[in-house]
């Protein structure tokens, strides 16, 4: 099998960040305490932001840091604070279910890996524009203006819905 | 290089899928879903640089995905807190009212 890897600086940076991301994700699955899982996944999200910088997507990388590391992780920590996690880690294992899930995931990964390796990707025809953030801003306000506004409506609706859902029970009691 | 990024995304997606299927804590399930969405974003951005026609469309699309993922996380936590008030547990195995 030919992997076509040339050992450049970009490859080493990719390798380092990829190892960080996978280690964070695997540890997140293995940790027993929920807070440790959340912090470990935050580490994975930061590594992914580094990979985005490597892929010349600086704006998306900073949005990733702001949104995932800043907002989603903090939201999950608030969720952990609001709920009780006393008996965690003592639950009996379910070996059959875990084995079946592991086999299913490995099969899916095998299929994906085979598809990636057997698909011949042609070399890119052009380069991305230099000023990433400026170009994305122009695209968002010209070609993608309507989806952009729709997404803002979706966000407003979702957050009002979240507030209403989390608040309703208190008024009843 | 594209193949390496796609393989990494596949690994992360499978880890997230395993977490969703096996974990009982609802918060960990939500976080695993976020991990799967992140793997998809990595694919989109890798294709936006190394695809046949490199363009910013992939990055714009990943921005939309992140927005929807943030909305999903907020609503998910709200549903979780509302359920926790009713059942006093975050174990997804015990959310089985529809089965009784």
TrEMBL record, chain A:
Keyword set includes Ubl conjugation: no
Keywords linked to the UniProt accession: Cell membrane, Membrane, NAD, Oxidoreductase, Quinone, Transmembrane, Transmembrane helix
Catalytic function, reaction form: a quinone + NADH + 5 H(+)(in) = a quinol + NAD(+) + 4 H(+)(out)
Pfam families (alphabetical): Oxidored_q3 (PF00499)
MF (Gene Ontology): NADH dehydrogenase (ubiquinone) activity; oxidoreductase activity; quinone binding
Cellular localisation: Cell membrane
Membrane topology: Multi-pass membrane protein
Membrane spanning stretches: 12-31, 38-55, 61-83, 95-116, 144-166
Main subcellular location: membrane
Gene3D superfamilies: NADH-ubiquinone/plastoquinone oxidoreductase chain 6, subunit NuoJ
EC class (word): translocase
EC number: 7.1.1.-
InterPro entries xref list: NADH_UbQ/plastoQ_OxRdtase_su6, Nuo/plastoQ_OxRdtase_6_NuoJ
Gene Ontology, cellular component aspect: plasma membrane
Family, as annotated: Belongs to the complex I subunit 6 family.
Purpose: NDH-1 shuttles electrons from NADH, via FMN and iron-sulfur (Fe-S) centers, to quinones in the respiratory chain. Couples the redox reaction to proton translocation (for every two electrons transferred, four hydrogen ions are translocated across the cytoplasmic membrane), and thus conserves the redox energy in a proton gradient.
Protein's name in the database: NADH-quinone oxidoreductase subunit J
Organism: Cohnella xylanilytica
Organism classification: Bacteria, Bacillati, Bacillota, Bacilli, Bacillales
Automatic annotation (TrEMBL), chain B:
Principal place of residence: membrane
Cellular component GO terms held in the UniProt record: NADH dehydrogenase complex; plasma membrane
Parts of the chain that traverse the membrane: 6-22, 27-48, 60-84
Domain of life, per lineage: Bacteria
First-level EC class: translocase
Pfam families per the UniProt record, alphabetical: Oxidored_q2
Keywords of the record: Cell membrane, Membrane, NAD, Oxidoreductase, Quinone, Translocase, Transmembrane, Transmembrane helix, Transport
Known catalytic reactions: a quinone + NADH + 5 H(+)(in) = a quinol + NAD(+) + 4 H(+)(out)
Keyword Plastid attributed: no
A GO biological-process term: ATP synthesis coupled electron transport
GO molecular function, one term: NADH dehydrogenase (quinone) (non-electrogenic) activity
E.C. no: 7.1.1.-
Assembly, per entry: NDH-1 is composed of 14 different subunits. Subunits NuoA, H, J, K, L, M, N constitute the membrane sector of the complex.
Family: Belongs to the complex I subunit 4L family.
Function recorded in the entry: NDH-1 shuttles electrons from NADH, via FMN and iron-sulfur (Fe-S) centers, to quinones in the respiratory chain. The immediate electron acceptor for the enzyme in this species is believed to be a menaquinone. Couples the redox reaction to proton translocation (for every two electrons transferred, four hydrogen ions are translocated across the cytoplasmic membrane), and thus conserves the redox energy in a proton gradient.
Protein name: NADH-quinone oxidoreductase subunit K
Protein source organism: Cohnella xylanilytica
Lineage: Bacteria, Bacillati, Bacillota, Bacilli, Bacillales
